[in-house]
Amino acid sequence: MTEDDTWAAEAARAGLIPASAVETDRRAHTLTRWLGADAQDVTPHVRVFPLPAPATVLVCTDGLWNYLSHADDMAAVVGQLPADSSAIAIGRHLTRHAIDRGGHDNITVVTARVGADLTGEHSSERDPR
């Protein structure tokens, strides 16, 4: 579940451009909202929805999303791992996927297991290499 705060995504939601053009529009990475000292509106988009358990939750930046923006593609890459892979292993694998494709943007990947045995599901390591 995501809401992209870019000009192109907002234009598509308003019906100004087709949804199929969001990723290729020249304004696809023109941010309309952000966090930081110069941000004017930092009110978060909040939604509550039930998750099936167990599940793995992924939060990422466009450094990964640029390479895996379709759910089927993301699932295929995650599916290359054993089904019992830890959240950190999934995050590392996805980060490596983006790096291997060029890593043209900052790559931030956070994964968390929901409703799973959390033993060993954390790491302070920062570099997946």
What does this protein look like?
- This protein starts with 6 loop residues before the first helix and ends in a 15-residue tail after the last strand.
- Mean pLDDT is 85; it is low at 120-127.
- It is built from four helices and two strands.
- It has 129 residues and is of the alpha+beta class.
Keywords:
disordered C terminus; globular; 129 residues; 26% helix; two-stranded antiparallel ribbon; single chain
Concise synopsis of the structure shown:
The protein is α+β, with helices and mostly antiparallel strands and 129 residues long. The protein has helices spanning 7-13, 62-65, 71-78, 87-100, and strands at residues 55-60, 109-114.
Number of domains: 2
Terminal-residue CA separation: 28 Å
Q: Segments where pLDDT lies below 50 for 5+ residues?
A: 120-127
- In percent, how helical is the residue content? 25-40%
Decide which structural class fits the backbone.
Answer: alpha+beta
Number of strand segments:
2
Going across the major beta sheet, what is the strand order?
1-2
The H-and-E topology, N to C, reads as HEHHHE
Please state roughly what percent of the residues sit in beta strands, choosing from under 5%, 5-15%, 15-25%, 25-35%, 35-45% or over 45%: 5-15%
Classify the oligomer: single chain
Describe the secondary-structure layout.
Elements: H1 7-13, E1 55-60, H2 62-65, H3 71-78, H4 87-100, E2 109-114
Antiparallel strand pairs: 1-2
